[in-house]
Design goal:
This protein is mainly alpha-helical and 611 residues long. Among the domains are: 103 residues; 103 residues, Alpha Horseshoe (Serine Threonine Protein Phosphatase 5, Tetratricopeptide repeat); 127 residues, no CATH class. The chain has 30 helices and six strands. The two termini are 44 Å apart. One of its GO terms (biological process) is RNA modification. Belongs to the PPR family. PCMP-H subfamily. This is Pentatricopeptide repeat-containing protein.
């Protein structure tokens, strides 16, 4: 891929300044006064950069132009950095173009500004122009260029820059090497990243953090945790990026106890106040079923970035706190935090899983007012919202009016609505449309099969499952797991491999008697196969989530909430049974399926039976 060196039009930043310049030193031709004036302005720029004061910075910029000291490269460097920190990279570029003498520091500043502010293509354009101007890159410029490649996930360009760095003698430079490791890791080339990492004569926190992040991103959680332990063993001063990567590993693997220990380490090193660590901690506690812990972390961090707001929004949405999502969105607006496409995905998700159709439409329409163009994921969420509420024809209309080709996730959302409302005719139409896309995931086949089976059309369901087998695609096995101490106990439906299998099944039989006496009646319609009635009852009684709950009941102390994680959607009968179990045992049971959290307490579920 090549990027043409085209300068983007940049809006002037020094027009219409309303602030007075009287508090800045006046220009002087005396060399001594000129130097004093120059030093004072540089110090003022640094101070305004630190305080993120745009109006005063604009006024000072105008004063600099009036004084004629913009010709000094260091002043230009500070101005570029000022606009960079205020997330105005194009203004940084404008200052750069107005600079008469461009030193390597000036080039480094503008490339860094563009790379740090999500303008990777422009950053690489400037990097190439710098080379054309005969400026030799240094250990500050190379990391900026590789960062841009990491943002683009384009390892080929990154590899070219890496080769160039080696060619001109940076093979032993720790800063360049670390940035290369980070770039390959972010591009998903974990083997190349590890090769570079292992060959580095010296490593710093960036190289260690890059590798840990890379393994976490590739879901190689054990290796990520092993590297983190090695880093601590070498007395490395890990930073907030390292901590956030490891905490995300704990969240993805629902390793609550380990996550809590790392949270404690963050408290000791004062990294708990970092918004990056805060985002990861919110995600950890939310994914482990402790949404109260997520709220606490959110409240304790004084300066929140957009990632932290989004993490809290999705936590609330997944735990069924839809009204809290709307409150948080209003708070974001009130503090001047601009929502992005992820923010709206979180809000639409909350609307979908709470049955709030009008609110979903409102926030979907609100996106364009915030300058966010709806993507296929947003359309999928809107279709899901309408489909779950039974407004299937309206959902079809939304799909037909999409400005882009409907994706598998959009059709899958409509299939979910068809399954819930037993509309097999529409499901068949959706199936034809989705198979036209080419090879699709096993989830679509399963949704179609379940839609037919839920309506009692078992022959069509069998055909859908056969199509899955014929294409060599395996259906994901349903698993449930609970954490006890430092061990995760995993169960599959009808599983008898656990060491406490006898006690578990004995407990399940006892629970079956208790909940039936309390009014529970098994709904065998959720057995999506054509088998005899007794077989259906047995099949549904030993689903993986029930085995996990039985294990927890015989293992956990009475006061401890039971947290069960599940990789697939909890079936309707198990959902009903767990409500009765929570009432009969007087236990709080939290189940996370692949869609959301269900908090069962005293016979009720937080989802309000809408999921």
């Amino acid at each position: 891929m090549s990027y043409p060196l085209v300068h983007q039009p940049v809006q002037e930043t020094t027009h219409h300044l309303s602030l007075s310049h009287s508090h800045f030193p006046k220009p002087s031709l005396n060399p001594q006064n000129f130097e004093l004036n120059f030093r004072t302005i540089c110090n003022n720029l640094l101070s305004l950069t630190q305080s993120r004061s745009l109006p005063k910075g604009l006024a000072l910029h105008a004063h600099i132009i009036k004084s004629g000291i913009q010709i000094i490269p260091l002043v230009s460097h500070h101005l570029i950095n000022f606009y960079s920190k205020l997330q105005r990279p194009l203004d940084s570029a404008q200052v750069f173009h107005e600079t008469h003498f461009k030193s390597s520091t000036t080039w480094s500043s503008v490339i860094s500004s563009l790379a740090q502010n999500e303008q990777p293509i422009l950053a690489l354009q400037y990097f190439r122009e710098m080379l054309h101007n005969g400026v030799r890159p240094d250990d500050h410029i190379f990391p900026c260029a590789t960062k841009a490649c990491g943002i683009l996930s384009d390892y080929r360009i990154g590899q070219s820059i890496h080769c160039f760095a080696l060619k001109i003698g940076f093979e032993s430079d720790v800063f360049v090497g670390s940035s290369v490791v980070d770039m390959y890791a972010k591009c998903g080339k974990i083997e190349i990243a590890r090769e570079v990492f292992d060959q580095m004569p010296e490593r710093n926190v960036v190289s260690w953090s890059g590798m840990i992040y890379g393994y976490a991103q590739m879901a190689e959680d054990e290796e990520a945790l092993r590297l983190f332990k090695l880093a601590l063993g070498e007395n490395l001063d890990v930073n907030d990026f390292t901590f956030s990567s490891v905490i995300r590993v704990c969240g993805n693997s629902t390793l609550l106890e380990l996550g809590k220990q790392i949270h404690g380490l963050c408290l000791k090193t004062s990294y708990d106040l970092s918004s990056f660590v805060g985002s990861a901690l919110i995600s950890l506690y939310s994914k482990c079923g402790l949404v109260e812990g997520a709220y606490r972390v959110f409240d304790e961090v004084p300066l929140r970035n957009l990632g932290m707001w989004n993490a809290m929004l999705i936590a609330c949405a997944q735990h069924g706190h839809a009204r809290k999502v709307f409150d948080l969105f209003k708070q974001m607006e009130s503090v001047g935090m601009k929502p992005n496409f992820i923010t709206f995905l979180c809000v639409l998700y909350a609307c979908s899983h709470a049955g709030l159709v009008q609110e979903g439409k409102f926030y979907f329409d609100l996106m364009k007012k915030h300058g966010v163009e709806p993507r296929d994921q947003h359309y999928a969420s809107l279709v899901d919202c309408l489909g779950r509420a039974g407004k299937l024809q309206e959902a079809v209309q939304v799909i037909e009016e999409m400005p882009m080709q409907p994706t598998e996730s959009v059709w899958g959302a409509l299939l979910t609505g068809c399954r819930i409302h037993k509309n097999t005719e529409l499901a068949a139409y959706v199936a034809d449309s989705v198979f036209e896309l080419g090879p699709v995931s096993s989830g679509v086949h399963v949704l179609l099969s379940n839609a037919y089976a839920a309506a009692g059309r078992y022959q069509e369901a069998a055909k859908a499952r056969k199509m899955l087998r014929d294409r060599g695609v395996k259906k994901e096995t349903g698993l449930s797991w609970v954490e006890e101490g430092n061990k995760v106990h995993t169960f599959a439906a009808g599983d008898r491999s656990h060491l406490k299998s006898k006690e578990i099944y004995k407990k399940l039989d006892e629970l079956g008697d208790y909940i039936e006496q309390a009014g529970y009646v098994a709904d065998t319609n959720y057995v999506l196969q054509q088998v005899a009635g007794q077989e259906k009852s047995e099949a549904i009684r030993y689903h993986s989530e029930r085995l996990a709950i039985a294990f927890a009941l015989i293992t956990f102390p009475p006061e401890r909430p039971i947290r069960v994680m599940k990789n697939l959607r909890v079936c309707g009968d198990c959902h009903n049974a767990i409500k009765f179990i929570s009432k009969c045992t007087r236990r709080v049971i939290i189940v996370r399926d692949n869609n959301r959290f269900h908090r069962f307490e005293d016979g009720k579920c937080s989802c309000g039976d809408y999921w």
